[in-house]
Every structure is written in structure tokens, then in C-alpha cells.
Amino acid sequence: MRRRTLLQGAVPLCVGLAGCSGSGSDSSMLSLTVFNHSEVPYTVEVTLLRADGSDSRSDARAFSGAIDVDPGGQAVRDAVAERRPYLVEYGLYEENSDLTDQDHVHYYPDDGNESDTLSFDIDSSGTLTRR
């Protein structure tokens, strides 16, 4: 009887701990957010490259994709890559056709920051800046 009672108490504890470990792993992922402060739609092509320099360019690519942002809106891509340093290359296209800005930024995780989001703003002149 005591063994059954012990097991009945241990199962909820194990399930609770499993849930905690799962939510902790999500916080180690990086998300991308783009805010469009203009009156036209934009597409941002983003590539995240590992910044350690030990891999070839194709091996260093952690994420590559396009993010469409409506006028006056925002777009979010959740959990695109591990939270670690990256060279972030981007191209900004007005109405998915005309290149208006192209550059790169460096991302370094901030251990004191709870947010695991890399955010950008598109201004009315078609320039992308990191928030």
C-alpha cells in the first residue's frame, strides 16, 4: 500500500518537472519581429549566419527566409534559430520587388534580457533598422 501511495505522488511531480524542462528549452530560441511604419507592404529577406567563422557559408547558415509585412503592421517568426551570436544579413524589398535597403547587423544574446527577439523597424523611406 505504501508503494502505491509513493508512486501516485511521484507521477504528478515527474509530469510537472517535464513541463518545466520543455518550457525552458523554448527560451533558448531566437525569434524575429519586423515592424512596418510605412504605408506600403515590404518583404524582408533575412539570413542568420553563425558568427564563429569555423564553418563554410552554407554550413554556417542557421536560418534563411522571407518575412512579409503589411503596411502599418508587424510580422513575427517564432523560434527560427538557437539563441547565440549571429551575423544577420538582410535585404528589404518594397512590394516584394524593388530593393530599398541591404546591409547586415551583428546579434549577440543579452544574458540579462528576458526577450529572445531580434526586432527591426521599417521607416517610411524604405530603410530597415535594428531596434
Structural class, judged by helices and strands?
A: alpha+beta
Radius of gyration: 20 Å
How many DSSP E strands? 8
- % residues in beta strands: over 45%
Summarize the amount of helix as a percent range: 10-25%
Report how far apart the termini are: 60 Å
Number of helices: 2
Low-confidence stretches: 13-25
From the structure provided, what is the oligomeric state, counting identical versus distinct chains? single chain
Shape: globular
What's the order of the H and E elements? Answer: HEEHEEEEEE
The largest beta-sheet arranges its strands as 4-1-7-8
What's the overall average pLDDT, rounded?
A: 83
Please describe the biggest sheet, giving its number of strands, its sense, and whether it closes into a barrel: 4 strands, mixed
Describe the structure.
The strands form two sheets. This protein has a four-stranded mixed β-sheet with strand order 4-1-7-8, with no helix packed on it. By secondary structure, it is α+β, with helices and mostly antiparallel strands. The termini are far apart. The chain is 22% helix and 48% strand. It is built from two helices and eight strands, in the order αββαββββββ. Strand 5 (86-94) and strand 6 (98-107) form a beta hairpin. It is globular, with a radius of gyration of 20 Å.
